[in-house]
Amino acid sequence: MNHEALATEMRGLREQLAGVTDTAVAAVDGLLIVSDTDEAIDAESLAALAAASLGLSQRMVAMTERGALHRAVSYGSRGCAAVYAVGDNALFVVLGDEGLDLDRLHRASQPVLKRIDTILASGV
Question: What pTM did the predictor assign?
Answer without folding.
Answer: 0.93
